Amino acid sequence: MSTETIEFQAEARQLLRLMIHSIYSNKDVFLRELISNSSDALDKLKLAAYQDKDLGADTADLHIELVPDAEARTLTIRDNGIGMSRDEVVDLIGTIAKSGTAELLAKLEEAGGDAESQRNLIGQFGVGFYSAFMVADRVELTTRKAGTSEGVHWSSDGEGSYTIEPADDAPQGTAVTLHLKASDADDHVHDYADPSVLRRIVKTYSDFITWPVRMEVTVPAQEEGGEPTTEDETLNSMKALWARPQKDVTEEEYAEFYRHVSHDWQGPMETIRLAAEGTFEYQALLFLPQIAPMDLYMRDARRGVQLYVRRVFIMDDCEALVPEYLRFVKGVVDAADLSLNVSREILQQDRQISAIRRRLVKKVLSTIGSLRDEQPEKYETFWDQFGRALKEGLLSDPDNRETILSVSAFPTTHSEGETGGTTSLAAYKERMKDGQDAIYYMTGDSRSSIESSPHMEAFRAKGYEVLLLTDPVDEVWVDAVEGFDGTPFHSIAKGQVDLQSDEEKEQAKERQEEFAELCEWMAGVLSDDVKEVRLSSRLTTSPAVLVGDEADMTPTLEKMYRAMGQEPPKVQRILELNPTHPLVVGMRAAHAEGKDETETAELLAGMALLAEGGELTDPSKFVTMLAGRLERTL
Ligand code: ADP
Ligand code: MG
Fold first, then answer.
1. pLDDT at 558 (0 to 100)
2. In the chain, what are the domains?
3. What is residue 625's predicted lDDT score, i.e. its pLDDT?
């Protein structure tokens, strides 16, 4: 195989251009990215060698090495880790295989020239290897996959293409050589061929890396006339952060570690530590990010917790340790008493792991709770980013339902809650009216469509607070969750509502009799679409409204089914009439005189459907009837 020149994928090219034209204010971080990749490669090799005794890899002295060359103006970052095959180089380095790249670029476009928001966006994404082009005109990579014999050489100037060719005598692992930009040499702070600059950057960003990061340094002669010698200096302390006493670790160290495990460019929102001793010994260091990753709500989003066993990296994305609804939590769990060969399947059934998981979930939830109590602004950001994911737990984790509800936030009709437009359920309960025995809510597409829905009329008139639930997941959990703190949830669009005073009830009873015949007749006329027609106590201004039975599917849920390509079972709803509305009053009178009001009944039902954002089964029939009516008023 000879040299091949390959074009970068269009997205990769665009992203590279953004990178090179200095989106980052701090170029030093390129080294963190490359060391982080090397560290991952060493983790992977160690694990692969455990799992496959016949791998034939050299694991004797696993380390990372920095080789600055001031004369040639290059810096090489080398590791003897897992390495890459030719196909992997093309896949992993030549393309940006991450999901969400296209969305990222679209958003970057939207953000326009605003460097700060571009930085934030890229930060959510993390560009890793490509950051090398911030400081280099040309990057070369030589690699050989552990256990194989063919090396690969890759080279690119980061413009449009790269070359790839076989490399015969490549050692196991990966070496990345940066041909440093001339402009950085003048400025001593950014001279990346200067050992003292490298020492400082490693100390700042990569001190906790568990593999030695070495650099050959010159030691002046000990005695007069002697020759200077060289020796390997280890630049990092290699101390696992989670094993050090909390008081000895600085915020900045936590933040760097977070960036390493999360591939996020920003710091964490919150750092969580927990540990247990005795029979089930473990330590955990967890983080809540500030911003949700692009793929949080995509299928198969990964979980962010890594498993270590006695400081040895075992796996990323450890689903046995965190439930899916907490997939945004990042960090590390180091368990003392597991086998290094443990598999995902075994972990799922391991009692120790499930005990850790339970504790971890409780701790994360209580951290969210204290955020709300102590730092409402942070909580608001958190909720905005991760609330939807957290609410999935209401369905998947019944044991923690009550706790999840208690740390959740809901928009309400009485807005300006304690966190800008949302309320906690505890606060809602405190505001409940005398005699109110349920937490009222309504689900829908948007806040405005719920607020203008006829279902809301009586609640608004009487000042009852209603939760406005607009996330798709809300449609589902409200059916599964019975109540909060002993108070049931009640949809204002379902069942009967009882907001009337005794006097009003008395009046309603009389009307019931008055309208009984009309209701019965209408139920017959509309029997294809509704199962019952009755008088309403929900309405003040609208003539009619459709409501469901307690167990019925809501119109929004029906729409969601259709959006997923499924036809939901047909639900027959209940038509409620407002007996004080002139249209309904007039209709009753006309019907009593023996006039045929079939068309009015159909129009009324159609209007009720439209008012709640529903879709008519026969829109053209409706329009024809309506046009006829209007014509007669002219
Ligand atoms: P990330 O580290 O977030 O996956 P990067 O752009 O930093 O993204 O790296 C892309 C991929 O290239 C890595 O996931 C890894 O598979 C591969 N890679 C990069 N550097 C090395 C290395 N030194 N050794 C082995 N594989 C590497
Ligand atoms: Mg990386």
1. 82
2. 4-221 (3.30.565.10), 241-379 (3.30.230.80), 410-491 (3.40.50.11260), 502-633 (1.20.120.790)
3. 94
